[in-house]
Amino acid sequence: MCTRYIAPETGDIERHWHLGAGQAPAWPREIFPRYQGPFIRAARHNAQPARELAVGQWSLVPWFAKAAKLPYPTCNARSEELSAKASYKQPWARGQRCVVPAESFFEPCWETGRHVPWRFQRADGTPWGLAGLWNTWVDKETGEVVESYTLLTINADAHPLMNRMHRPDPKRPPEMQDKRSVVPIEAEDVDLWLHAPVDVAASLVRLAPADRFLATA
């Protein structure tokens, strides 16, 4: 699971993802679950397909939640369960997909027998665009509107780099550890991810090649 990443500055996001200058509120650079962070989604009020920058809580609040602060984690969503899991199946079916900008993200390596955080940047120096889902939740008592998002993850047991992350499960054999990775969306695929039908978008949920990562401990 990814539970920490570094968000780019507003101007860098607008330039890299070709967004118009807006009035998005500020966010912390280092983001943890339930912090406010930026995400890019399909513009909701445009006649033609377009992108918009939004800010919300990193931990998706599903429609059935009674409060925005949940007793269980929703910062990561297993991509294999999107169409079945209650918290995510509605946003997935509705096409509420987003791209989460990140300069870098962190994962723990346990090869030394202890937690050593590794930082993952892109080898080409550009920011990551990580696949996510978003939702808008309204508190029935107060009327408060809460924007939120989650990062998708995918099995990385066969990935030569990402399979080295996370604490091994002694109850599982080496080939069935269910190591996880975030899902990068390449710049040329952003509009497809945001606007395409669900079956087409699903084809973009895949691991990035190892040479796309610059990993440092």
Describe the fold and architecture.
- The chain is mainly beta and 217 residues long.
- The chain has one domain: Alpha-Beta Complex (hypothetical protein yedk fold), CATH 3.90.1680.
- Helices cover 12% and strands 32% of the residues.
- The chain has a 5-stranded antiparallel sheet with strand order 2-1-7-8-12, with no helix packed on it. A 5-stranded mixed β-barrel has the order 3-4-10-9-6.
- It starts with a strand and ends with a strand.
Range of strand content: 25-35%
Q: Rounded to an integer, what's the Rg over CA atoms?
A: 17 Å
Read across the widest sheet, the strand sequence of neighbours is 2-1-7-8-12
The main β sheet shows up as: 5 strands, antiparallel
The CATH topology turns out to be hypothetical protein yedk fold
Q: Write down how many β-strands occur, each being a DSSP E stretch of 2 or more residues.
A: 12
* Tally of helical runs: 4
- Which CATH-level-2 architecture? Alpha-Beta Complex
Q: How far apart lie the N and C ends?
A: 17 Å
Q: How do the helices and strands line up, and which of them pair or pack?
A:
Layout: E1 5-6, H1 10-16, E2 30-31, E3 36-42, E4 51-58, E5 76-78, H2 86-94, E6 97-102, E7 104-109, E8 116-122, E9 128-138, E10 145-155, E11 180-182, H3 190-195, H4 198-202, E12 213-216
Parallel strand pairs: 4-10, 5-10
Antiparallel strand pairs: 1-2, 1-7, 3-4, 3-6, 6-9, 7-8, 8-12, 9-10, 10-11
